[in-house]
Design goal:
- This protein has 358 residues and is α+β, with helices and mostly antiparallel strands.
- It folds into three domains: 109 residues, Sulfite Reductase Hemoprotein, domain 2; 133 residues, Sulfite Reductase Hemoprotein, domain 1, CATH 3.30.413.10; 70 residues, Alpha-Beta Plaits, CATH 3.30.70.
- It is 34% helix and 21% strand.
- It is built from eleven helices and 15 strands.
- A hairpin with a 5-residue loop joins β11 and β12.
- The relative contact order is 0.13.
- GO terms for molecular function: 4 iron, 4 sulfur cluster binding; heme binding; metal ion binding; sulfite reductase (ferredoxin) activity.
- It comes from Aliarcobacter thereius.
- It holds the Pfam family NIR_SIR.
């Protein structure tokens, strides 16, 4: 098992950029990968499927979980060109192709890159793509549209070599709802929009399920940077099974973490008494709902299937195009939300997708 490897030595011997070059080397030479390099390949979404290293899988994280028609057609092209049986829509907003020959990876990477898809930095001891609510910006009950802030968090951290060598992975969530979003897991750190006593939008900082205070919109990125640096500096690295952020907080104790965080910021965290929150997170709604964008609806699909064969994906793309929809989101539980269905077409689109068992 990978945890028996010396993970810290694996990270120190080669950087994430070094392994990109190694991927192409192995693809060309066909040499067997060492156990250490097999672990490093996971950083870029590549997982071995058999002991002889004849078959690999490729996981592709989706920024904010979104896919447009061009990207869906790229995925379909990969199924056709390389004869893959299907593409899986995994939990955690990831795509996965299986039964891949290593020699085909350079071509696959090039095709993905043409439509702004990439498996690079899929895992590893780095900061994952930020979690947001599936219908952010579309739901009228939302207090604040956090898309711009979510994109800034991703551009700050995802793929940033300064935050690659953490004790373990770290994930931020940001929500326009006070209760946060139902991602199926409790994020390490959440920033949830809410109104303060002056009726101004602030962001509540939650470490796990515990609130440590409120900050302004402009203070979210500096706070996230400080949290990541504290974890990088003080997180233990010896026992791999307890290097996660939750264990770090339990060992340090949240009150001590809060004091360290406050000392690193040049602004005050307001109302910083530690409060456990039992509010149920906001769940994505299934079915047809009116969008905040005039003339459009969003459609939540409690998908029966989490994988798409070539035929099913072709039908899915055709139905979207026929009904003038162009963008979807994969939720953290592998369901699908059509983000931009013209309201006049929404009933027909929904019924057609139900026939497809989506």
């Amino acid at each position: 098992m990978s945890y028996k490897l010396n993970i810290e030595k694996i990270k120190s011997d080669k950087s994430s950029n070094d392994i990109i070059a190694d991927i192409f080397y192995y693809c060309v030479t066909g040499e067997m990968l060492s156990k250490e390099d097999l672990e490093r390949f996971k950083w870029h979404g590549i997982y071995v499927e058999d002991n002889n290293q004849t078959s690999f899988s490729l996981k592709i994280p989706l920024l904010l979980g979104e896919l447009n028609l061009i990207q869906l057609k790229t995925i379909l092209a990969l199924l056709k060109r390389f004869g893959f049986d299907e593409v899986n829509f995994n939990e955690g907003q990831k795509l996965e192709f299986k039964n891949i020959r290593l020699s085909t990876l350079p071509n696959i990477f090039n095709i993905l890159q043409e439509s702004s898809l990439s498996s690079f930095f899929e895992s590893g001891h780095s900061i994952k793509s930020v979690i947001t609510c599936p219908v952010n910006g579309l739901d009228s009950t939302q207090l604040f549209d956090v898309e711009e802030l979510a994109n800034r968090l991703n551009s700050t951290f995802v793929g940033n070599k300064n935050f690659f060598n953490l004790p373990n992975s770290l994930q931020f969530a940001i929500s326009g709802y006070p209760e946060g979003c139902d991602a199926g897991v409790i994020p390490d750190i959440s920033f949830n929009a809410r109104k303060n006593l002056k009726d101004k939008i602030v962001f509540e900082i939650k470490i796990g399920s515990t609130s440590i205070g409120n900050i302004a919109y402009s203070q979210v990125i500096p706070t996230a940077r400080a949290i990541a640096n504290i974890y990088k500096e003080y997180g233990q690295r010896e026992d791999y099974l307890t290097t996660d952020f939750k264990s770090f907080i339990e060992d340090l104790e949240l009150i001590n973490f809060s004091h360290i965080l406050s000392s690193m910021l040049d602004f005050k965290i307001f109302d910083s008494s530690l409060i456990n929150s039992n509010i149920d997170p906001k769940k994505p709604r299934m079915g047809i709902h009116k969008s905040m964008n005039d003339g459009f609806s969003y459609i939540g699909l409690n998908s029966k299937y989490k994988n798409f064969t070539q035929k099913k994906l072709e039908d899915f793309i055709r139905i979207l195009e026929e009904n003038q929809a162009s963008k979807i989101k994969i939720t953290h539980k592998s369901n699908i939300i059509i983000l931009d269905a013209p309201s006049q077409n929404s009933e027909n689109l929904n019924s057609s997708l139900l026939e497809l068992e989506l």
